[in-house]
Structures are given as structure tokens and as C-alpha cells.
Amino acid sequence: MTTPGSEGSDQLALIVGLGNPGPRYAGNRHNVGFLVADELAERIGGKFKRHKSGADVAEGRLDGTRAALAKSRSLMNLSGGPVAGAARFYKVPPESVIVIHDELDLAYGTVRLKRGGGENGHNGLRSISKSLGTRDYLRVRFGVDRPPGRMDPADYVLRDFSRAERSELGFFVDRCADAVTALAQKGLEAAQNEFH
């Protein structure tokens, strides 16, 4: 199996940032995947364009690695179709797809990389797993912390980052983009060793 970071491989890295489209959701915790994808697009000098997969896609080289960055144009809970469509278009096997998403079970700003696992109530991941036919894809988990008190997690992730969180958000997004780059270039184990 050829995966991102394989020696001698010029395989394209398909990197998907999860979020909800439109200005209403732009600053939400649930949209941190979009924020990281936007940072990566800046790094490759690419602009997102409408793609027939149902995602907006930016292509370029991420520190020498061929990359396609994707953001679904559908709501988070329906991300699977556009992600699977992009994977088919770019001929990237499901186990090589990299998905960036918000994670309630990690402290704010913590970045963790893994392959597979459960969806933990994340409807975007559930949709992707269903559409790809497997849970065995690469995940970049960006911690957004648990909601305070008895707040419903679904309400919490659809709220904007707090003022205090926003003061550090740029730093954490940048660090997450570094982790994605390492994952695409060096593979999972090397990137985990560097960022965990």
C-alpha cells in the first residue's frame, strides 16, 4: 500500500478539512478543519475552486509533496459524498485520505494524529466512513475541549471560539498545518513522533 510519506512515492496527498460552508459558520469550533485547510492553501499558493466532486479544491505542492486540499460544499453531516468523490477523482485509496477535524476529547489546541477508530459522535466522520466504506483513513484531530457545564456538545461546536481562544487560534492552526505537512511527507509514525 502506498501512503503519504512513502519513500520514493510521488503520490498525491488528499487533505480534507471539515467544516460547514458559509459565513454563518466560519468562526465555529466545528470549522477548525476549514481553518487549517485555508492555512495549507496559503502555503501552497493555491486558491480553492469548485470541483465536480462537490468540494472546493486547491492543488499545489506542500513542501515538495503533491497535494490536493478539499473543503466540502455540503454541510458537515453530509461531508462523505464530496470526500469520497474527491478520493475517486484523484485515485487516492481511502487509507491514504487525510481528514482534519475538531475533537471534543482533546484539550484546546492539542493536535493528535491517528489512523481509523470510531467517530465518537462526530457526524462528519460518520458520513465519511460510510461513503468511503471504511473507518481506516488518516485523521488529524484538533482539540476544542469539552463544553462547559451541561451544554449540549452539538451546540458547543457550533459556537465561535471565545475571545481567549481566538488569541491563540492562529498559533494552533499553524502548528496543526505543520503536523498535516509532516503526515503527508513522512507518514503517520514519524509525524506522531514529532507532534505527540
List keywords for this structure.
single chain; 196 residues; alpha/beta; Rossmann fold; 6 helices; 20% strand; globular
Structural summary, described in words:
It is found in: Cytoplasm. The chain has 196 residues and is an alpha/beta fold. It has one domain: Peptidyl-tRNA hydrolase (Rossmann fold, 3-Layer(aba) Sandwich), CATH 3.40.50. The protein contains six helices and seven strands. The protein has a seven-stranded mixed β-sheet, sandwiched between helices. Helix 1 packs across helix 5, helix 2 crosses helix 3 and helix 5 runs antiparallel to helix 6. The longest helix is centred in the C-terminal third of the chain and has 24 residues. It is globular and about 45 Å long. 43% of the residues are buried. The model has no long low-confidence stretch (mean pLDDT 94).
CATH architecture call: 3-Layer(aba) Sandwich
Helix content, binned percent = 25-40%
**Dominant shape:** globular
Mean pLDDT metric:
94
Largest sheet: 7 strands, mixed
| CATH level-3 fold name | Rossmann fold
Number of strands: 7
Distance between the termini: 25 Å
Order of helices and strands: EHEEEHEEHEHHH
Biggest sheet: strands side by side, in what order?
2-3-4-1-5-7-6
List the domain count as a whole number: 1
Low-confidence stretches: none
Helix-strand makeup class: alpha/beta
Brief digest:
Keywords: Cytoplasm, Hydrolase, RNA-binding, tRNA-binding. The protein is an alpha/beta fold and 196 residues long.
